[in-house]
Amino acid sequence: MTVADHPSYFSTRRIGAMVLRYFFLLRGSIPRIIELAYWPTMQMLIWGFMSQFLYEHSEWFVRAGGILIAAVLLWDVMFRSNIGVSISFLEEMWSRNLGQLFASPLRPYEWAMSLLAISAIRTLIGIVPAALLAIPLYHYSVFEMGLPLIAFFVNLLIFGAAVGLAVSGLVLRCGLGAESLAWAVIFAVAPLSGIYYPIATLPDWLQPVAYALPSAHVFEGMRAAAMEGVFLVDRFVWSVGLNVVYLLLGLSAFLFAFRVARHRGQLLQMGE
Amino acid sequence: MADMAIKVEKLVKRFGEIVAVNELSFDVRRGEICALLGGNGAGKTTTISMLLGLLIPSTGKIEILGADMLRDRYRVLSMINFSSPYVDLPKRLTSRENLMVYSRLYGIRNPKERVAGLAKDLDIDRLLDRPLGELSSGQKTRVSLAKSLLNEPDLLLLDEPTASLDPETADWVRTYLKNFQQDRGATILLASHNMSEVERLCDDVVMMKEGSIVDRASPADLLTKYGRANLEDVFLDIARGRQNAEDSEVGITA
């Protein structure tokens, strides 16, 4: 073998190898696969029955049939995407595998891309069964939203993953003592995202903060789609633009933490 | 093609106030087997980590197979590999899954055939479909060794390659490594506490203490210089600050 004058800066093969690594991990544990679908299904059941109750007692809910189910499923997209990135990242730390990985030609941003990919797969495994189950149980299909649903899904997936990357960077920086952040941080944005209520419900001073989050635009857009059957293009453009910013910030935080870890020798030391 | 597989110049690594590696300079010729010897905390693992690019030096230069590791590590990472009992592979994956993932990371063509071939060579075929976490430490060492040979590296860095192996398996591994080095013309740098292993395998020994090189020669020359019958005694002499045969005599009689 000779020295490569032009090593590949981006390799789908290496990203595929890492996705394969996480796929093997999932495949090897049926309880893990069941768990992926378990929590979204439980959430959907609770909010589905709550919707039925409110449907019978509230005029607003009669107009907004199924909106709570759509909200809970889309919130779970963001949440699952977030922990999909964080958990896959933590798997490497728990298994003390970082030294092996980064002595190979794998580049840190390829790893980040593989985390995004596996997070999307995990999210689909988790959400699709719950969404399908809502159809016979509550006569509500989130898929009826059509193309806007794809726009909402992708935006929330990216935002959750961006937060996951930033949190992973934080855990890499602070060590496994900070691993609970992997579950906690996303909940900090939940109240501001207007998942179950319009952003107008928030105090005036808090609304600009909420609109700095892509998720707030997505959930406003979702309500408009569900209640009025319209797709708010401006909300979509805002969410995409903000997502680009958040993804770049998340990736930068992750790569910065990785560089610091190489200075401190943490790639070989991190582990349980 | 550069003659030197490894060229290290004035390498320093500080962790706050602690100097783990201090002004380290050495080189290893292509096709040579070189040992880094030293007690705990001598800086061997820190040095290997910097050679792999896992750790960024405070100052100094590292050239691997002609590439500057601080600027161009990705030019050569596919040509080097390493094994250490202190850096794990994922335990929940089977040995086969681990080797398949790393085959793809290293860009191996026909990974299935490569994994099967190595498994046969290293006698781990029957372990391939068992989760790594269920294997004994000796079996894990062999799987880790298989991972380190997947890309038929030009440079192999080994940290304690026969740790946790029974004497017979350890001997078999040494023979395998020696044959691999001869067949491939590969360069091997190994850190070891096993002096007989170093005597048997290595052309060159770099003795380290407190982050610096205190001596360097072939095993035979070290034995002559310190007037000892084996490297273990040489190691003890150096650890205790004796510099040569005369000092060693004083050490014996004192």
How would you portray this structure in words?
- The complex is a heterodimer of chains A (272) and B (254).
- Chain A has helices spanning 12-27, 30-57, 59-63, 67-94, 98-102, 108-138, 147-174, 181-193, 207-210, 214-228, 233-264, 266-269.
- Chain A is mostly helical.
- In chain A, helix 2 packs antiparallel against helix 4, helix 4 runs antiparallel to helix 6 and helix 4 (67-94) runs parallel beside helix 7.
- Chain A starts with 11 loop residues before the first helix and ends with a helix.
- Chain B is an alpha/beta fold and 254 residues long.
- Chain B folds into two domains: 4-217, 3-Layer(aba) Sandwich (Rossmann fold), CATH 3.40.50.300; 218-254, no CATH class.
- Chains A and B meet through helix 1, helix 5 and helix 11 of A and helix 1, helix 2, strand 6 and helix 3 of B.
Quick one: CATH superfamily of the largest domain in chain B? P-loop containing nucleotide triphosphate hydrolases
Under the CATH scheme, which architecture of the largest domain in chain B would be assigned?
3-Layer(aba) Sandwich
| Largest sheet properties of chain B | 6 strands, mixed
Task: Name the helicity range of chain B.
Answer: 25-40%
Largest interface: A-B, 40 and 45 residues
The tally of beta strands of chain B, per DSSP, is: 10
Average pLDDT score of chain A: 89
Q: Give the helix level of chain A as a range of percent.
A: over 70%
* Rg calc of chain B: 19 Å
H/E element sequence of chain B: EEEHEEHEHHHEHEHEEHHH
* Fold-level CATH name of the largest domain in chain B: Rossmann fold
Termini separation of chain A: 37 Å
**Number of DSSP helices of chain A?**
12
Estimated structural class of chain B: alpha/beta
Kindly estimate the percentage of residues of chain A that lie in beta strands according to DSSP.
Answer: under 5%
Per DSSP E runs of 2 or more residues, the count of β-strands of chain A stands at 0
Structural class of chain A: mainly alpha
The low-confidence runs of chain A, each spanning 5 or more residues with pLDDT under 50, are none
Overall pLDDT confidence of chain B: 89
